[in-house]
Amino acid sequence: MATLSNELKAVLFRENFLDNPRNVLKENCLVIQNFSYECERMRNNSSDVYGASKPVILSFTIRVNSPLHARELYRRLALNGHYDYSILFNVTYDANQRLKDFEDGMVVNGYVVSVEEQYNSLKDDDGLDKQMMLEVKLLVRSTIYMGRERQNDLTSVFIH
Question: What is the pTM of this model?
Answer without folding.
Answer: 0.75
